[in-house]
Design brief:
The chain has 356 residues and is an alpha/beta fold. It has one domain (21-319): Rossmann fold (3-Layer(aba) Sandwich). It contains nine helices and 13 strands. The strands form three sheets. Strands 6-5-7-11-1-4-12-13 form an eight-stranded mixed sheet, with helices on both faces. A three-stranded antiparallel sheet has the order 8-9-10. A two-stranded antiparallel ribbon has the order 2-3. Helix 5 (180-195) links the parallel strand 5 (161-167) and strand 6 (202-206). It starts with a helix and ends with a helix.
């Protein structure tokens, strides 16, 4: 009886949390983070040692981005091979071969990707534990992972594939990173090859004066402006991919309303003069303006990135204990201070509105 009452109580909490989430986040947002909030991430001198299923740009890169792309490219190649064999069997009219191809490769799930990233990190002695969080509850092992839904129609009255890609190497800085631009170029190549994203719909910010002009340098001003304009461009029916490769930090919160009294933040290229970009600013500028029926997939390959988007539901292989019905949502943890975080966002938004 107590177990049933406890389950019903958790169900009510989840429904209330979901209602709050929908009030603040109209879009469906899924975030793959390189690590948990208290962790740092691995930079790899030679990503080819991971036996990637694609040819990467350069040799240096982030473990999170490389492993994310590895499992998706592998699935893509399986699907391509299946389609090829099916065409060949159809042309040859070979009944035995056709019967063997009756079942396509299994759909890739959110759990497939998360488990692969975690297992390879552990096998290579990387201490980071990749994390998945989202704006709506999902089933790790039943819901298929899709950057672009099967029913998506490109350039229809409602439907554009958009990407926001930010990579920062901090050249000539004491905290320079070597592989972030490589990661971004690998992500763009994947989006174009596998999902047919078009150059005109890809917004790229790199600290590379050859690839990007002054307006697309990843300064704090440019990043915040891009968050605002990018989210306002999105329309119902769009699919969005967001990728960040650079430094992430944890800064002491001005008021202790975070679980650990720290806020997560990104470091723009001019962080030494302009400061960091706080999670609350990412949320209010990038996520809140997104309209409903937009599917957002985000990949943040940086330190302290676990809750960088302040999403209400989290999944982690590090803690398989459920806060809800394990049969329905295995490995799901609810961010029960989500309402407090949203009050902080509203307070920040009101303050910014009063200044404008």
């Amino acid at each position: 009886m107590k177990e049933r009452a406890s389950k019903e109580s958790r169900s009510k909490i989840t429904k209330k949390l979901l209602a709050t989430a929908k009030d603040y986040i109209a879009a469906k947002v899924v975030l793959f983070s390189a690590c948990q909030d208290h962790q740092t991430t691995a930079g790899i001198d030679n990503v080819r040692k991971l036996c990637l299923s694609f040819v990467p740009e350069g040799t240096k890169g982030g473990a999170c981005t490389s492993l994310f792309l590895q499992v998706l490219y592998h699935n893509y190649k399986l699907q391509q091979e299946y389609n090829r064999r099916r065409r060949d069997s159809s042309d040859s009219n070979h009944e035995h071969l056709q019967s063997k191809l009756a079942h396509p490769p299994p759909s890739i799930t959110y759990g497939t990707i998360l488990n692969h990233m975690q297992q390879v990190c552990e096998r290579n002695n990387y201490t980071q534990i990749p994390l998945l969080s989202c704006s709506r509850p999902i089933h790790l092992y039943k819901d298929p992972f899709q950057i672009v839904p099967d029913n998506f129609v490109q350039k229809s009255p409602q439907g554009t594939k958009r990407a926001l890609i930010i990579g920062i190497t901090y050249t000539n800085s004491p905290h320079a990173l070597a592989g972030c631009q490589n990661d971004c170029r690998n992500v763009i190549a994947f989006l174009k090859k596998v999902h047919s994203f078009e150059d005109e719909d890809i917004t790229l910010l790199l600290d590379d004066p050859v690839a990007c002009d002054d307006l697309n340098q990843p300064t704090k001003k440019n990043i915040l402006r891009t968050f605002r304009t990018f989210s306002m461009q999105c329309q119902e029916g769009d699919v969005v991919f967001i990728h960040y490769a650079g430094h992430g930090i944890a800064v002491e919160a001005r008021s202790c309303d975070e679980p650990d009294c720290f806020q997560e933040a990104l470091l723009p290229v001019d962080y030494m003069t302009s400061g960091e970009i706080l999670d609350v600013d990412i949320f209010r500028l990038l996520l809140i303006p997104m309209p409903k029926n937009v599917l957002v997939t985000a990949l943040f390959d940086c330190c302290h990135s676990g809750t960088i988007l302040d999403l209400p539901f989290q999944y982690s292989g590090a803690n398989p204990v459920c806060d809800y019905d394990s049969v329905v949502f295995p490995h799901m943890q609810m961010v029960e201070d989500f309402r407090d975080r949203m009050r902080k966002v509203k307070k920040t938004q009101d303050l910014q509105d009063s200044k404008s």
